[in-house]
Design a protein that fits this description.
It is built from 13 helices and 12 strands. It is α/β, with parallel strands linked by helices. The strands form 2 sheets. An 8-stranded mixed sheet has the order 5-2-1-6-7-8-11-12, with helices on both faces. A 4-stranded mixed sheet has the order 4-3-10-9. Strand 9 and strand 10 form a beta hairpin. Helix 6 packs parallel to helix 10 and helix 8 crosses helix 11. The protein is globular, with a radius of gyration of 20 Å.
Length: 328
């Protein structure tokens, strides 16, 4: 199959690389120029779960992406770039091609469907994880089930083909008749973990063993489950809180949002806790803990970005020029 991976970071390179290794024609599109250059110059290296794999596949910056007539575009960009990824998908997909989202948060499916049409979008939720080691090198740290489906839950030939495709690359894959509920299930898990780690700098196991943060997490989960109930969604995991607590206790990994925070990248907070706040407002469900956590995440994101990328701040000069608050 001819495949284009839009967003060749940790998850995109993992899925795309293993699909290429299993015999598919794969091209990568990513905005990280050094990564693109390394893939074209030295090939893509995958380590961790799949072993040590080195392969050659072409990579492009988004504005250089060619017209390819691909059968499948795998969208793995962060949620801030889903709109731009949809435009790239328009360029690389053939007439009957489909874009499949493998992303965190909610809203990505709707953004892609708005640009491409609902009939051209497939949904995927993964419980795999990976981290970038450097340009051209991705390490897969965890492997678990991948779930795919049509937006409307229908059982189609193309879903079966994609299931076989992923299984041939070594991914345990399940086709779901309610994949949007699976998306929400992972959404709740991410809402309960990612921003807490990003703001505190804690890894999962540290979070679980810290009394105040463990209790704060319960408040975050309570609000998330209240919104889920108000929307009438039945999560596949009926004991999702227990799953979250067990996962945090057993793992000492860094969630993607903490990785982004440490590198000064924009986080996906508005597709996670921020999105939960928006849903809560629409439904009349109060979400003060998530609202506070979203604000703290944006504040921390600002402070880290300034420390990493901007000159040292002259606070004395700022005080001299501060004046009065606009509303005073």
């Amino acid at each position: 199959m001819q495949i284009c991976v839009i967003g060749a970071g940790a998850m995109g390179a993992t899925y795309g690389g293993r699909l290429a290794h299993s015999g598919n024609k794969v091209v990568f599109v990513d905005e990280w120029a050094e990564h693109v250059d390394a893939i074209n110059r030295d090939g893509l290296r995958l380590t961790g779960i799949p072993g040590d794999i080195r392969l050659r596949s072409p990579a492009y910056l988004p504005h250089d992406a060619p017209k390819l007539a691909c059968e499948l575009a795998i969208v793995t960009v962060d949620s801030n770039n889903t709109g731009a990824a949809a435009q790239t998908a328009k360029q690389v997909l053939g007439d009957n091609g489909a874009a499949m989202t493998i992303q965190n948060g909610i809203g990505n499916v709707e953004t892609l469907a708005g640009a491409l049409g609902m009939e051209s979008v497939l949904v995927c939720s993964t419980m795999c994880s990976a981290i970038p080691i450097g340009p051209g090198h991705i390490d897969q740290t965890h492997q678990n089930k991948t779930t795919i489906g049509e937006i409307d839950g229908s059982d189609t030939d193309r879903i079966r083909r994609v299931q076989i495709l992923l299984e041939s690359a070594g991914f345990e894959t399940e086709a779901s008749s309610d994949v949007m509920a699976v998306i929400w299930n992972k959404f709740v898990l991410n809402v309960a973990i990612n921003a807490l780690c990003a703001v505190t700098g804690m890894r999962l196991g540290e979070l679980a063993r810290h009394k105040e943060m463990d209790e704060f997490q319960d408040q975050i989960i309570d609000e998330a489950l209240a919104v889920v109930a108000a929307k009438g969604i039945t999560l596949p995991d009926t004991e999702v809180r227990k799953t979250i607590k067990k996962h945090c206790w057993a793992k000492f990994s860094k969630p993607s949002m903490l990785q982004h925070m440490e590198r000064g990248r924009r986080t996906e907070i508005y597709a996670l806790n921020g999105a939960l706040v928006r849903e809560g407002r629409t439904l009349g469900i109060p979400t003060p803990y998530n609202e506070a956590l979203a604000a703290l995440t944006k504040g921390r994101e600002f402070a880290v970005g300034r420390a990493l990328f901007e000159p040292e701040t002259d606070y004395e000069m700022l005080e001299r020029n501060a004046g009065t608050r606009p509303q005073e």
